[in-house]
Amino acid sequence: MALAGLGAFHGLNPAMGWLFAVALGLQRKSRGAVLQALLPIAAGHALSVAAVIVAISVLRVFFDITVLEISAAVALIAFGLYRLLARHRGRAGMQVSGAQLLLWSFLMATAHGAGLMLIPVLLGMPIADAHSEHSHHMAAFSSLGPSAGTALAALGVHTLGMLAAAGAIAIVVYEWAGLAFLRRSWINVDLIWVFALIGAGVILLLMALP
Fold first, then answer.
1. What span, in angstroms and rounded, lies between the C-alpha atoms of 172 and 169?
2. Which residue has the higher pLDDT, 184 or 170?
3. Short-list 157, 70, 88, 80, CA closest to 116
4. In this predicted model, which residue has the larger pLDDT, 144 or 205?
5. How far apart are CA 23 and CA 28, in angstroms?
6. How far is CA 14 from the centre of its chain?
7. Of 184, 63, 176, 168, which Cα lies nearest the Cα of 123?
8. Is 63 exposed, middle or buried (0-12, 13-18, 19+ CB in 10 A)?
9. DSSP letter string, 138-201
10. What is the pLDDT of residue 182?
11. Using only C-alpha atoms, what is the Rg of the chain?
């Protein structure tokens, strides 16, 4: 539920891609163009998150969980403050291919710290247990099959949540609301995301400290 909820929250953010998809649909006067654009956008987002999942899976084999939790908490807080102080905006032309959309989405999701927010959830995923440090490492590596399957399922749930939310908003905006409503009533989801990063980091740090 946490992974799906975070995915849906990512999908709500216009900066994560649905606004781009709507703009392409309006330009080409096609609902299909909106839906077609969402697929590489979701794929790019998934690749960004997958990079974090792989990093966490590898680091958990070699480092104590408390060390990882404290490091992750500091990273979340630092990145949230960076996002708050340095407001970078991505730019891309409207004549784009699927590959360009995928790359744009990957870079945008990475710049927004999409994968970082999953770290507290990922650190709670089970890992092989053993008595000695050496056997612990060997057991972890020998269990890569189930661990990889769990990580892949986590990535799939998160990406589906993101795609469902982004797709629903994109279709509503394209078919009925129009882009003008963003100037009247849309909340600053990016700012909420910044404070969510900082808040998650603070909570994780408090839980990790003895």
1. 5
2. 170
3. 80
4. 205
5. 9
6. 13
7. 63
8. exposed
9. HHHHHTHHHHHHHHHHHHHHHHHHHHHHHHHHHHHIIIII-TTHHHHH---HHHHHHHHHHHHH
10. 60
11. 19
> Token digits for 58?
């590898």
How many whole angstroms separate alpha carbon 189 and alpha carbon 195? 10
Distances in Å between the Cα of 70 and the Cα atoms of 78, 136, 144, 210 are 12, 21, 25, 11
| Among 128, 145, 87, 123, CA closest to 200 | 123
Provide CB contacts within 8 A for 195, sequence distance 6+.
Answer: 80
Cα distances (angstroms) measured from residue 5 to each of 13, 61, 117, 121: 13, 27, 11, 12
* Residues in Cβ contact with 177 at an 8 Å cutoff, skipping those fewer than 6 apart: none
Q: Residue 136 in contact with residue 76, Cβ under 8 Å?
A: no
Residue 126 backbone class (left: φ over 0; alpha: ψ -120 to 50; beta: rest): beta
Residue 31 structure tokens: 């609902």
The counts of H helices and E strands in the chain are 10, 0
Selection from 186, 161, 160, 159 nearest residue 172 by Cα: 186
Amino acid, single-letter form, for residue 203: I
Count, residues in the chain? 210
Total-model pTM? 0.71
Q: How do residues 115-148 score in pLDDT, each as one tens digit?
A: 877 877 777 665 544 433 434 443 443 343 336 7
